[in-house]
Amino acid sequence: MQRTATTTELSSDRTTEGSPFSRSAAICRGRFRQLDSLLGTEYTGPRICDVLLTSMKPLQHCFQRVVLALVGLLLTSGVAPVARAQQNSGSIGLFETHLDVGETPKKGSASFDATAGEYRLTGGGANMWAAVDAFHFVWKKTAGDFVLTADVHFIGAGALEHRKAALVVRQSLDANSAYADVALHGDGLTALQYRPVPGAETSEVRSPINAPVRIRLERHGAQLMMYAGKPGENLTPSGPVTIDFKGELYIGLGVCSHDANVLETAVFSNVNLKELPASKADLNPTKVRSNISVYDLETKNVHVVYSADTLWEAPNWSPDGKYLMANSGGALYRFVLDAKGEAQPEKVGLDSAYEANNDHGLSPDGKTLAISADHGAAKGSQVFVAALSSSGDVAKPQLVTPGAPSYFHGWSPDGRWLAFVGERGGNFDADGISGASLPAGLDRAMPWRSASPTMHKKTGSRILLRMANGLRCFRFLRERRDTIRGPASTCA
Hints:
The chain has helices spanning 2-12, 20-39, 45-55, 61-89; strands spanning 97-101, 109-113, 118-123, 128-129, 132-133, 135-142, 145-154, 164-170, 179-185, 190-195, 203-206, 214-220, 223-229, 236-242, 249-256, 264-276, 290-295, 302-308, 313-317, 323-328, 331-336, 345-347, 355-362, 368-374, 382-387, 398-399, 406-411, 418-424, 427-433, 463-467, 471-477, 482-487. 14% of the residues lie in helices and 40% in strands. It has three domains: 2-89, no CATH class; 97-276, Jelly Rolls (Sandwich), CATH 2.60.120.200; 349-491, no CATH class. The model is unreliable at 1-18, 33-45, 71-89 and 435-492 (pLDDT under 50). The strands form eight sheets. A seven-stranded antiparallel beta sheet has the order 1-6-15-8-9-10-11, with no helix packed on it. Strands 2-3-16-7-12-13-14 form a seven-stranded antiparallel beta sheet, with no helix packed on it. The radius of gyration is 35 Å and the shape is elongated.
């Protein structure tokens, strides 16, 4: 009632069209319409302008116009630009904005409670998996290394056990983008999921920690790591995985319901994002966090046997399954697993003059070690074999491929011969060695056989060896579609 009376009174003062009073009122209302439009609020201009003009009624009209012009200037130059920036950016806490990625029939949402320090995300989407993703994403752009950490929990029981709340980094906002995430599932499963190139099938490394409270995603160059555990405790690492990201990335938080017709909500608290200078995206770095892990084919869980901040490569089981053998820094090590499935490296007694690489393997009986190594004046890797004792002592290695470079490939199931690959005349081919080139005690009578399970008749790439007036090497070259035959020296 009071508002109606005020409006009526002002209307009577605007009877003269084009008067200073009416023009001032028009300016005032126009300014507030702009502000309401920017803020997305209900139009409040008439009431505010009415109050201002009523209070200034005793003043001269010219002064009223000056005052209202100043009010309008403040609104457009001060408050309005701030409101415009907030509306256009949609900033949420640390992040720039939020949106749905992929096909999401039910639209998601995101909010930030500054007092509680919590991000509440609601998302739909069929999955974050396979070749495309669908989820709700709150993000910001970044270009370097980072460490993103958060405590995560779901709201409610959920419709499906594989709903996901995740820390996410993506090359783009496309549904099939290359990405990595640390995804906490509704049933507690936690995994480092990744798609190395657009449209590829998603792979994962599962954490041994079920239903963690705190999760972390780290990027150092091309390497990405997952950590999981409880606040205040050392987080358990898993990974790394390698993705050759380029330029700017999208990093943030995501929620997927695992059912396109359902929305699920998760809360992210204690969110901390450390943006670091970019490391060189070395796809084969020497300074990395390495985890030697065992993957259980039945449970599909990954158990970390050993971790270190250096490069470890090629862990292989001994034939009896009692230990692993891996290489680091040119040396070989055994890992004898204890009752907890953990181990510390025990250096194999290989002469340090042999700089072993990641091509090594034990014969089926566990008594002979084959290695690829740089040694002496040779211009590249060569293949050596040596007797190995049960205690890990290695006899003097015997050279079996004078030609370089040569790399050990594998033993035959009966241990009578081995296969290797080597560059000869500018081409890399697969070859085999047996007979006089191997230590005494190995069978020299070689029947026709395929050199390795990875070399199939259908592909036209197989190696056949036999004894016929001495050792003979047969190489079937895929590119040339013919067979090169010769004595053992042709394999070297």
